[in-house]
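Researcher: Quick sanity check before group meeting.
Model: Go ahead. Protein one:
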Amino acid sequence: RDKRIAECIKKIGQIERETDSDLFSSVVHHIIGQQISTKALATIWQRMKTAFGTVDAYSIANASIEHLQLFGMTFKKAEYIQEFARKVESGAFDLDTVEKMPDKQAIKELVALKGIGVWTAEMILLFCLQRPNIFSYGDLAILRGLRMVYHHRKIDKKLFEKYRRKFSPYCSVASLYLWAVAGGAIPELKDYAPKNR
């Protein structure tokens, strides 16, 4: 329906992104991965797999905070993932129920966990639960992609919602292409944001 994004899709071609369909490991991954490199996260995850065999709620819930820290994460992150694992173990956080919830409700449940903000919850819905209609106003690369494709200087909430309505119910696809554009996939597109003096 949208000529400009259609043009981008044609130029970029099919985008493939890795997904993690296990909600428990996706939440743990996202908490540990905040503000560290992908490589550092992979190292920590590999250490955990070597130690536990399977990184599941039981093994994390029953490990001490000190033990979890030895894998290379901060005290706070160790605390957050242990608390999450215990909630899953006790049934206070039901993974299956959350997986079946509508987007808004699932985001609300995830944000109630320590260490998970709105943007992280939205990324879990997109890359783990593979929801088709996720569009994050908190994502700077999506805002940059919109500025580049539609020649805006600034994207405020009202304008963003206009694009959400336009791309719905396939906002997740638009997100993938806007990320690609923001990353330089179409060299002739530039960012129209005013330059800081």
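Researcher: Fine. The other one?
Model: Protein two, sequence then structure:
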Amino acid sequence: MIVNFGCGANPAPSAPDYVNIDGSLTVLLARLPLPASAFGSRADFIRVLRTHRIRYGTARHLKLPEGALDCFYASHVLEHLSRSDCEGLL
């Protein structure tokens, strides 16, 4: 399993071994049955969320099976976490 944590609008390829995770509330809002255009400036992000397998998850509440990871990728995301959240995540 390869996790792309904090993927935003740049998810990893949709493949069985990739899991894209983002903590933006927009990930949850994308599930609403509204057209992407209803989200204004976030419409493009909504389209990405709906066409890729992106799960909602945060550093505090990320639960993955022990020993299941082959790779954990986090580009430009750790600096947005508190020190304790970053330490707990890593």
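Researcher: One line on it for the slide.
Model: The helical segments are 25-29, 43-51, 83-89.
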